[in-house]
Structures are given as structure tokens and as C-alpha cells.
């Protein structure tokens, strides 16, 4: 039976309606040792000291493991076999992320990823029930319209796409589950300020699926949790290091890298679908502004900080995105319109 995913498995979903159950209880830090340092290391005169002995207290089981390693060939063969197996699994599942070309370890197949997201989809659909707007609602229609243009650009035509717009003007959030299940809270539509802004949000969220970030995050557990346990057992240190490693892996560099990758793939995707990639920069500016005003902090920002650096990086990708749009069937008209706008100094919110 596949593990059940909690909402936290999908980094963008934050809601009070679904409770999170995933906790690394195995790695809970121990209670701190409050014994004073001096009590553990009494000072003795040189004349009182016996023969010098190496102390391994700080390294816990490391000494025992080293002794077994030295005396038992079977232990060494076992460690070698396990290491070779892990290396083989790692090598076999080493792959390149589509579009960005980044290499990473991912042992979760798209089919498995999709199967695991199914229960998540059912849970969210049941939780929001009547708040889900009908497909005939103008908001649902607009989301579906933008989605239909993005799907061919994402190359995900084969998925069973479904759009659920949840009527909640306070919630500024959107996410896409593996398998093509799109959830958009109506609150984010106001900050999108039109189809181009919505394309930026959906492009980013779909990009996480294109890059199979859910599978990658789950795959990280295969080596991070055993690594953290091994470190804890070997050095007999508190679980804080394990927590620290897991924090780094899941919250900081990994997530930032994936977010930036989703920004890049999403930007190219929306441009290929003939949307204006400049809208992505403006969207994050509006998000940051709403956050600064505090009374309307977008929930999407909890996993997507609209930092200045993020906007700067997106701006650096704009020429490539514009090129992508020019190569699309829409390229001639939009390129001409852009030239015309810049020649006459009209901004997007101006005459055009
Ligand atoms: Zn994201």
C-alpha cells in the first residue's frame, strides 16, 4: 500500500481545512542534558591521573562500529554490498529534469506520483464540497480557458485535467496536483489581474508537475532519513543534526531550487502559450505589495516568497521567454504589438 500523502507533501497547499499528519517523530530531538560541564570533567592534578586513555564519549557507538569493522570481514562485505546497492539504485534513478536540464535523483515514477495524489484530490474535493464553483461559473471558465492554452505548451495533453475553483475570496492560493488536478481559490484571481497573471500562476504550478518535484521530494527521503539515522546512531548525538539535515533538504536549498526551476519552466510555458511573460514579474510585485500591506497576505507567499532576488532572476529570463513567444504561432502579432507599444511609449495598462 503506497504511503498516504499529507497536504504538506505538496508544498503549495496551505489550508486550515485539511490537517497535516506528516511528522518525523522518529527523529524528535532528545531532551537537552542539563548536567553542568564541570560535573562531567572533574579537574585532577597530574599526579592523580592514571594512564592516558582515549575518550570516545562524544562519538557514542562509533568505536563499537569501528571495532566490528576491523574484526569482522562479513560486516565489511555487508557494508560493501549495501553501499553498492544504494549506489546502483541512485545511478539507475538519476535523471534530467525536462526543460531546465538539471540532474537529480528521482525514484518515484510519474504513475506512482499520480496514484499517490489521488487520495489527496478526493480529500480536498470533499473538504470544500459546495464551495467549489460549477464549471459554468465565469471564474471556472476563465481558469479553464487559460489552462487549455497552457496544456499543449506543457506537453501534458495526456493527463485527465480537471479544474476546481473554490469560492473563497480571502484565500489567495492555487496548486496543481500530479495527474492534472487544478485547484484555484477565487481570492487569487483578483491579484492575478487578468489572464496573463493567471497564466503566470498556473504556469508555475503546472511547471512543478512537468518537473515532477513531488516525486523528487519524496525520493529525497530514501537517502536523507537513513543518512540522518546513521549519523545519529554512529555518533550518538542528539537528533538535532538529523532535524537540521532534513530542514536543509526539504525547506531551504531544495525547495528554493525547485521554486526557481518552476519559475523558469512556467515562464517559458506561458510565453509559448502566447501570454505576456512580463506579467509574471508584475504578478510577484503585486504579491509583495499585498504582503507589505499585511491585511491581505497571499497564502501562496507562504511557500513562494516574492523576494527582490526572485523578481530580478525572472527579469533576466524575460528575453529568452520573449524569444520563445516569438517562435510560437502567435509570435508575429504579439511581437508587432510589443514593438508598437514600446515605440509609442504605451505601457500594458495604458492605451492598449
Ligand atoms: Zn512553487
Automatic annotation (TrEMBL):
InterPro entries referenced in this protein's UniProt entry, alphabetically: Mito/Outer_Membr_Metalloprot, Peptidase_M48
A GO-annotated cellular component: mitochondrial inner membrane
GO molecular function terms noted in the UniProt entry: metal ion binding; metalloendopeptidase activity
UniProt entry tagged with the keyword Nucleotide-binding: no
Cofactor(s) of this protein: Zn(2+)
Family, similarity comment: Belongs to the peptidase M48 family.
Alphabetical keyword list: Hydrolase, Metal-binding, Metalloprotease, Protease, Zinc
Textual note on the cofactor: Binds 1 zinc ion per subunit.
PANTHER family for the chain: METALLOENDOPEPTIDASE OMA1, METALLOENDOPEPTIDASE OMA1, MITOCHONDRIAL
Keyword Hydrolase applies: yes
The protein's name: Peptidase M48 domain-containing protein
GO biological process terms held by the UniProt record: mitochondrial protein processing; protein quality control for misfolded or incompletely synthesized proteins
Domain Peptidase M48: 142-317
One Pfam family this sequence matches: Peptidase_M48
